[in-house]
Write a structure and sequence with these properties.
Immunoglobulin-like, elongated, 4-stranded antiparallel sheet, 30% strand, alpha+beta
Length: 456
């Protein structure tokens, strides 16, 4: 080998060795880092009073942290309350620096909440939020407003909702809810507030008219801890439209709309007109939300069951009533009164349906949902009309609905639909008409087969 060639070969071998050394990772068998970064210091200290309003806030960690947080942008890693300017977050090797455009305002108490989205270089993420409280001259009143943001149409919690309380002097305090929609606003000065929760879909911290939202009023007094749940609704600016009209029976019509309705809102301003081909039709005696109708049916059924119990108690011993039925009937009447909850929703009794005809049940009524609080009734999309006179079978009626206000408060809803009462379906167990052949027998007028052995 020539000297030049040997030198080149040795150089190549050295380069390969250098690259191999440079690509070596952690020695096998070493400990694996599974611990999230630890916050060891803040600037300023908790509950400190600062005089330099332009000074940034810094969070110091015990190890190097990643520039990439768990979802969203770096600015989403903190929530500054009250919001007095745009927030900017800068990343350092072991620090996060928070700055407010225009500096902090004097005479306020600030809460800077570090969200559990910060990770170290091994992907280990903070488990809990951290709250830094400091003053620019304001006091720390012992007040709090807490609750849950929840979806009014589903009952489900609205996770990560942004909740803001705006005072009468336009100072906005901010909190971000957790995955279960739970939020807390602390150290609010006394006064009245508009508490608004919304899904901050574009993560800009600003309420958009297209975002799911809701608000309630709150009056905070000295030492108050208020529990306020905020129901939010998807944005809707169009009135409700009637989709179908169907007959539950001859005196009950169901009107279905394309929007949810507030079951607490009265329907006194809603009008329903039903007309047949001759221009006449039954009047509406009563109009109910679907949940009101269900309660009405339960109340009527309960009343009929009580009448059945009284009939059984008053029946003579030879009327075919078992000897212990009277005592049982008395106990049913007493128990039904004790079990009837407030609000008129009666509890159905054991022993089957009443002997007297009862109003037809309405299927598909939406129930309540639990979201960390009391049961919340879910709104429906149907109205039930109780008619003053029966519909005629097979006649098409024109139904006109007007004056409906949807759950978002949009008025002038309604529409037109066709209503038809179909003929009843034949009962297979009914008696055959006179002259009809029994089931499985020969047709009427057939000559019997007299062949010996026939019918065996």
């Amino acid at each position: 080998m020539r000297p030049a060639t040997a030198t080149a070969a040795l150089a190549a071998m050295g380069l390969v060795g250098f690259v191999a050394c440079a690509n070596q990772g952690a020695p096998p068998g070493g400990p694996v880092d599974v611990r999230p970064p630890v916050l060891i210091r803040t600037e300023p200290d908790t509950f400190a009073t600062i005089t330099d309003l332009d000074a940034p806030v810094r969070f110091h960690f015990d190890e190097r942290i990643s520039e990439n947080i768990s979802g969203g942008e770096l600015d989403d890693a903190v929530v500054v309350s009250p919001r007095t300017g745009d927030v900017r977050v800068r990343h350092g090797r072991r620090t996060l620096t928070v700055e407010v455009e225009g500096g902090f305002r004097p005479g306020l108490l600030y809460r800077v909440t570090l969200q559990p989205v910060v990770r170290d270089m091994f992907g280990n993420q903070l488990r809990d939020p951290f709250e830094l409280v400091f003053s620019t001259g304001g006091s720390a009143p012992p007040t709090a407003v807490a609750g849950q943001a929840w979806n009014r149409t589903t009952g489900a919690p609205v996770g990560n909702a942004l909740v803001q309380a705006t005072s009468a002097d336009s100072v906005t305090y901010v909190s971000r809810a957790d995955q279960e929609g739970i939020y807390v606003l602390r150290y609010l000065p006394e006064g009245s507030y508009d508490v608004t929760a919304f899904e901050d879909l574009d993560r800009d911290g600003v309420l958009d008219a297209r975002e799911t939202q809701g608000s309630v009023d709150a009056l905070v007094q000295a030492g108050d801890t208020l529990l306020i749940d905020v129901a939010v609704l998807p944005s809707d600016t169009t009135p409700a439209v009637m989709m179908t009209a169907s007959a539950l029976d001859s005196v009950t019509a169901v009107l279905e709309l394309d929007d949810y309705l507030d079951f607490d809102a009265p329907v006194t301003a809603v009008t329903v007109q039903i007309e047949g081909p001759d221009g006449t039709g039954p009047a509406v005696a009563r109009l109910l939300h679907e949940r009101e109708y269900t309660a009405y049916v339960e109340t009527v059924v309960d009343s009929l069951l009580r009448l059945d119990s009284l009939d059984a108690a008053a029946a003579p011993p030879d009327a075919g009533v078992p000897a212990d039925s009277a005592a049982l009937a008395d106990s049913v009447v007493v128990d039904s009164a004790a079990l009837s909850p407030p609000g008129g929703q009666a509890v159905g009794q054991a022993g089957g349906p009443p002997s007297r005809p009862a109003p037809p049940a309405l299927g598909g009524v939406r129930g309540g949902a639990r979201g960390g609080g009391p049961e919340r009734p879910i709104p429906g999309r149907r109205l039930v009309a109780l008619l003053a006179s029966p519909l005629e079978v097979g006649i098409e009626y024109d139904v006109t609905l007007s004056g409906v206000v949807n759950i978002n408060g949009v008025p002038e809803g309604g529409g037109e639909a066709t209503l038809l009462l179909p003929p009843p379906e034949p009962d297979p167990a009914a008696e055959p008409p006179p002259g009809a052949a029994p089931a499985g027998g020969p047709p009427p007028g057939a000559v019997p087969d007299t062949t010996p052995g026939a019918g065996l």
